[in-house]
Amino acid sequence: MNWHQIVWKSEKPMLITLKFWKGPGLKNVSFWISLLQFCFVFGQQKTIVIDPGHGGTDSGAVGINDILEKDVVLNVAKEITVLNKTLFDDRFAIYSTRYTDTLISLKDRGRLARALKTDVFVSLHCNYSDNPNARGVEVYVSNRKAKYSIEATWLAYNIQANLNRKLGFESRGVKFANFQVLRETVAHGPTVLVEMGFMTNTDEAGYYLKPKNIRAMALAILMGLYNYFNAGL
Length: 233
Ligand SMILES: [Zn+2]
Description:
Radius of gyration: 17 Å
Bound molecules: zinc ion
Helix content: 25-40%
Oligomer: single chain
CATH class: Alpha Beta
Strand content: 25-35%
């Protein structure tokens, strides 16, 4: 059993420690967060819309262990909101396109992002494949050239890097596609769609059975957002 420890430091007095052991497959993550003190520089609070995909009658992908994509993405979205409050001292103004198990149309998801003049829009999904060995994380950016294409690509790399380095998910790359939810938002701000692993892979579907892993995924995404904004693109 290999113990690993990651200490993530920002230039501010803050220390987040992730400890995990690496067994076969995905790393089992449990993390301790030592929060010494938060002292962010003053600045305009960034608005983030998190978009948990599917919902209601649309379950999304069904996991090999019967978990549903719509529940996984909603739980991660809820945890992002909680961690932003408890750990990031409400650093971001975070909205969700849905807070419950309801189906929102793709048009309305985009409409909300535009109405809020969001700084970034992050759609959360899980992947599905006929090949049970398919695994890893993909982050999608709209393939339409738009005002925020470069920022969206940079954001996608930041999120992907965090999920790979902090949690051990394989990187399948940043990809470009013509998904409706990306198409309808990319002209208004950086927009990405994260495929957080495969519901058809035993390790990755099993990963989401544990609340601490849901929390780790939420934290890694938040770190990706934090790094993106701090890079000052
Ligand atoms: Zn989906």
